Amino acid sequence: MRTLLVLLSLVTCTVTYGLDAPLSSPEKVVLDFYAAEAKFPSVTNIEHAKPFSVFLSRSLYRSIQYALAADEAYLKENPTDKGFFGDGVAFVGSPDGYTSYAVKGVVPNGPHAARVAIQFSYLDQQKPKEWSFMWTNVILLIKEEDKWVIDDIEYQDGARLSFHLKQAVEEVRKLIQNERPTTSVP
Q1: Could you give the 3-state DSSP secondary structure of residue 137?
Q2: CB 3.0–4.6 Å: which of 1, 24, 104, 151 could bond 57 by disulfide?
């Protein structure tokens, strides 16, 4: 009887407090991630990125932090500029955002990796025909510590979020180096 009570308590805690969520399956991670992204769509600094850390691999989260820190350093020296992440980190792949999304497929890639296709659509209520479009991104997930996490985002054009982050850091580095006066040794 005591064992039954303990098991019922654990099940109740798991269901009530969602101890198995949000990292229980690749599809659930992606859906929960974009639900959070819809509430906080503009990740423009390190503080804004923190709520997303539970959904992201350590590597991708570090890359986002590094790129945002580089952008913040650039903006300190150039406060009138917009910055590379002025509209936020591109988790969606469209500057216009989206009005809806749906998972279109999950493809396991062994026991510790998966690809989730997610289709976004954008519908402009003012001009529905000329400004309505759909696109599909592929979310790459891995298992870290037995939890599914997003390791990268592959946009419809084949580019990846990780590449854009590295490219932004490199561009910031170049801009900062070019703005500093150079001294030549005679």
Answers
A1: strand
A2: 151
SS3 content of the chain, % helix, strand, coil (to 5): 40, 20, 35
The tokens for 123 are 């519908």
Contact predicate 61/49, CB 8 Å: yes
**161-181 per-position pLDDT tens digit:** 999 898 888 888 887 777 654
Q: Which domains does the chain have, with CATH numbers?
A: 25-163 (3.10.450)
DSSP symbols for 156-184 = TTS-BHHHHHHHHHHHHHHHHHHHSPP--
Query: pTM higher than 0.90, yes or no?
Result: no
Quote the CA–CA distance of 23 and 30 in Å, as a whole number.
9
